[in-house]
Structures are given as C-alpha cells and as structure tokens.
C-alpha cells in the first residue's frame, strides 16, 4: 500500500513499512532438504524373490563359525537401530533405555546366542548408514524397519521377513489430505535413502518431497506446518500418530514393505542363526506377544510373516 501526500507540488509516494510477522518461523531440522527428481527411470535389479533367505540351522545346533565365534568371544551382540522410530525403537524417557518391537526382536537373537537377551549393545545408525555399517563391520546386525529389496540384497544379506508393512500417508485432521493423490502441489516429508522416497516420487511425482534424517524430524516439520504430510510405512506412521491426536493416517497403502534383519553378506552363518530365532518366535508365541506389547495400536496381531527360503 502507498500513501499520496498533497503539498501543492508533484505527488510523492512513500512506502509503508512492512508489518512485522506475528511470530518467528521455526527453523527446519538439520539436514532437511528438498529431494531432487529421481536420477533415472531405470528398472530396479531383479533378484527373483528378495525375501527368500537361508534356512536356519536344525533346532539345537549352534555350530562354530567365524561370525558366530567373533560375537561369542566379544560377549555382546552389536545391533544397529534408530531411536526415532516410536514403537519400533525409541528411547524411553522414563527409564532411559531403548525399547520397541525391533529392540525385542534383537534381544531374542541375543537370547539364542548367549542365553541372555540383555547381552546387546545398541548403536544408533541413520537410515543412510545402515548398509555401510554392516559392510564395515561396525555392527553385527541391523534391526531398523529395513525393507528387503533386490538393490539392498546386492550389498548385504537379509533374514527372512519378520514384519510386513504398507506405505501410507499421515496428515493433520481436516487438512484435506486424504491420500497420496491429494499431495499434488503439496509438500510431503520422508527420510532420505529409504524406499519410501522412491515410492512417493513414483506415485505422486507432482509433490515436493522434503527429506530429513529421521522420522522424529518428519513429525516436527509436520507439526510446524512446514510440510502438509508425512509418508512412510503404516507401522512407523502409527508411532508418530500416537504422539499427536491431531494427526491421522489416511488413504490406502501403495507399496509393500517387508522388513528383514540386515547382515553382512559374508556372515552367512549369522543369517542362519537369526532365521532360527525368527522361526522359534513365530512358533512359540513370542512374536505375537511382542506385537501385542508394542503394536496394539494397529489392532490384534496378524499371523507372523511366512518365511521363504532359497536353499
């Protein structure tokens, strides 16, 4: 707006000072960025069934092997995970301990190695660092809502599937976002270097995708209205939704996300050991108890995923 002053001469226009904003904008989390378009449309590598893994050892057998002997000599199982995935792996503020569905899965692996589920050292590993951590040997296994894909199987080994999720959308109630289709021209958050980023760019290429380092950061930018929605697996979205009653999971699932335990490709006997643990907890009711403890927000526990083996 301008003001015109009459002074018996030529009109002089003076701009009014801009109004101060009613509040200071919150900074975005460190490492947040707008994702570039996909580099190419090349087809993903084909490895057959990526969820097929190595058969477990026969019950009661724990053979000597370089990988298992290394862990037994150390006396601890070193597990990579993420502490920002509420319900799966998070830091309990009341106890100061790491808890969740993935944590309990890792403890069952340690139980079968040592007879003690507490003999675990947890290392916080960002999503982008999961594969490098396994390749470098800084962790023995990664239990971190990690989807089994052919691309990842070219770099690391996986256990059989221990949880099945579907990618969906999380939005503010009443926002008008009811599915991925409504993200045309809007901003959506996901974590960098995840299958979720690939899928949302395929399903809704007209969305602006903001990538962050962890799921807690996605919750922050959604609450600060810096994005219109978050997209990831429904299991992870449930953990975000229980932290804020203004949020709701919307729309149908648009991708299949089978979770596997990541292992270094050279540690085949460790893969078999992990698969033995997963087979045990599927049959003795432990898997269902872990699901009821952490994921009752998703409803009654379904049957555990059926294992597939390649040998």
TrEMBL record:
SUPFAM superfamilies documented for this protein: Periplasmic binding protein-like II (SSF53850)
Coiled coil: none
Claim: Nucleotide-binding is one of the keywords in the record: no
Domain Solute-binding protein family 3/N-terminal residues, every copy: 76-298
Composition-biased stretches (Low complexity): 27-45
Record-linked SMART domains: PBPb
Keyword Signal on entry: yes
Domain of life: Bacteria
Keywords from the named record: Signal, Transport
Pfam families with a match to the protein in the record: SBP_bac_3
Region annotation (Disordered) ranges: 17-67
Record-stated family: Belongs to the bacterial solute-binding protein 3 family.
PANTHER family documented for this protein: ABC TRANSPORTER GLUTAMINE-BINDING PROTEIN GLNH, AMINO ACID ABC TRANSPORTER PERMEASE
Record's protein name: Glutamate ABC transporter substrate-binding protein
Species name: Rhodococcus olei
